[in-house]
Amino acid sequence: MKLLLCRECGDVVRLYPKVWRSCACGTSKGRYLEDNSTVEQSAGSLSIALDNHGLRDAITVWDQSAAAWHPLMVFRAFLNPTCEADVRWIEPAPGADPESGSDPGPGAGSGPAPAPEPEPEPAGAGVTPPHE
Ligand SMILES: [Zn+2]
After folding, report:
1. What DSSP string runs through 67-122?
2. Could you give phi then psi for residue 49, rounded to 5 degrees?
3. Domain encompassing residue 11
4. Which one in 6, 86, 123, 131 has a CA-CA gap of 20 to 30 Å to 36?
5. If you measure from the C-alpha of residue 71 to the centroid of ligand 1, how many angstroms do you get, rounded to a whole number?
6. Number of structural domains found in the chain
7. How much distance in Å is there from the Cα of 12 to the middle of ligand 1?
8. Closest by alpha carbon to 7, among 79, 104, 86?
């Protein structure tokens, strides 16, 4: 799973297939392409790769005994390098409004943005989740 990290505001954004999602300050945005592997995101942002299998295993352990969980039980995450073929950094389009479009995120058309809340599943939930 790839996440976008905005270096302006520090927001970390889970990217969805096809739907542009933006950080809290609006400087960075990104999305998965239809292959569910490649992302395109704003130049200057960072791409975090979470090891899906490690995360899944950690959740399994958590579900077996949350009280036994310890921070030393880790899973892998790393920054994708600029040579990573599955990450395309794009310059923001002139006049592009990252809030427009079908992003169902908080604050869309509802005045001042409230505190971040869990995002609803994107349309088409049930599709294979994006992978690294
Ligand atoms: Zn930002």
Report:
1. GG--TTS---EEEPPTT-TTEEEEPPPTT--TT-SS---TTTTSSS--S--PPPPP
2. -105, 125
3. 1-132
4. 6
5. 28
6. 1
7. 9
8. 79
pTM: 0.68
- Distance from the alpha carbon of residue 70 to the mean position of ligand 1, in angstroms: 31
d(CA 93, CA 105): 20
Q: How many residues belong to the chain?
A: 132
Q: Which residues contact 7 (CB under 8 A, 6 or more apart)?
A: 28, 44, 45, 46
More confident residue, 23 or 96: 23
Structure tokens of 71?
């921070």
* Ligand 1 centre distance from Cα of residue 29 (Å): 8
**Structure tokens of 99?**
């809030």
Please report the pLDDT score of residue 125 as a whole number.
Answer: 43
Residues measured by CB to lie within 5 Å of ligand 1, the ion: 6, 8-9, 23, 25, 27
Instruction: Write down the mean pLDDT value for the chain.
Output: 80
Report the pLDDT value the prediction gives residue 121, as an integer from 0 to 100. Answer: 47
